[in-house]
Amino acid sequence: MGDFNLALVIVAIVVCILVFLFNIYLLVNYQHPDDANQAYFPKFVVVLGLSIAAISILMLPADVANRQACRHAIYNGACNLTLPMKDLWLAIYIADAVLVFFIIPFAMFYYEGDQDKTIGKRIKSAMCWVVTTAIVCALLLGILYGLAGKADFTVRHLSSANAPFPNSFNFNSGQQCINGARQCSAYSANASSETTWTMRATFPEYVVALATIVGSVLFTIFGGVGIACLPLGLIFSFIRRPKAVITRSQYIKEATELGKKAKELKKAADALHQEERSGSKGRKWRKNVKAVEKEVLLLEEDVKALEEMYPQGEKAETAWAMTVLGYLAKLILGVLGLIVSVAWVAHIVIYLLIDPPLSSFLNEVFIKLDDVWGLLGTAAFAFFCFYLLLAVIAGAMMLGLKLVFITIHPMKWGATLMNSFLFNVGLILLCSISVIQFCATAFAYYAQATAAQEIFGHNLQSLRGIKYLYKYNVFQIGFIVLAGLTFVYYAAFGWRRKKPSGRFQLSS
């Protein structure tokens, strides 16, 4: 058993190092040139946040693998050699909450502070905001924990009479007891034997629970939309792809229109900058800033589309060939993603919303894959969890473009500012808690007897007030409804070329 856990520790260390190096690679290649060789603290927070988000997703498969150490235990102390997963879960999610509610806001306030101010004044201004947030959060957490930080467990008193010892044993799914009625007397107890057992939840578990609720609201909205728009967006991107290279005259015409739009946006941006300097930063100003940001993003998409339709330079033919191959890759990934999305939706309906479940579905698939090869089911399990997190990100990006009141923070290769990085990392961290809780519930049969099951299953779903959200499947139902509406939306309008306000429609 010790050797098994030594191997698991080595694998965990290697995976953590690889995750850390991969996140540094993402930061280096996505960062804006203006942030090169500066903004080191926000960069550290970005790498740390992305690493914690990825490790938290991978911890659930690790928890399942850690559970295997006790399956064939030959002595009582064998399970003491396993990893302390419950402590690791609480540590990773307390760190998650601290990053989301304190460190990332501080880094954003510091980064977005007035560049004309000294470093000390920027730190002081950011600390004022963060300390105010910390005081409010501490008061709310303390009051809520004092009033409702208890878990209510429904228990039933069971007892049965003695029965003669049988001459032969014949237990099966239809006969699990030795009495003649083939029904355990203890399980035939009346409803009056039920009672409620109340205990105080630990403060770390309660903090994780509240963070999970906040994340679950975002997860339900973004995940429900993203589970549909992630694959369908790729498929319909292939359908709306440029079919052929446009002529030079068409290119000049479209480029002229885009140039006019760029001048208009620059004029609007200059006017907003003047208003900012004069100190008239009201609600209307912030609304206009977001509108200009949206128009700039749409303009950049049009410019990219125009460059695809009219490749230039000595390698124009090669560029067009790569464009065609890129859209084919989107089609293939979209079809595969659609299969995974449909499997997710079907599993939620079959296993979570129907009582009793019609089938354990994906749980059985993972178990059978484990029988084929020890880590195959665990790898598939991790893939489905990661896919759900990708769906959340895709849904946030889609709604950010559609709804004006959501700040747009697009991630662009080689052109992502640190405030956009920090915003998206905070979103990923906040939703990663809910993704793990959702996966622990959706794959309860496969992940049974794990530390995650104990934290995110029994304890979380028994907390006073919070338990009703899980008892009536509020988040799961909302997830399915939004996924269905998004599927319908894409089926009706996804194949069309969109014409949003202020966006130029390119010639086909």
From TrEMBL:
Compartments reported by the entry: Membrane
GO cellular component, one term: membrane
UniProt keyword annotation of Transmembrane helix present: yes
Main location: membrane
Keywords from the named record: Coiled coil, Membrane, Transmembrane, Transmembrane helix
Record field: transmembrane: 6-28, 40-60, 90-111, 123-148, 206-239, 331-354, 374-401, 421-446, 474-493
Protein topology in the membrane: Multi-pass membrane protein
InterPro entries to which the protein is assigned, alphabetical: LMBR1-like_membr_prot
Family matches, as Pfam families: LMBR1
Coiled coil: 248-309
Protein name (record): LIMR family protein At5g01460
Protein source organism: Nicotiana tabacum
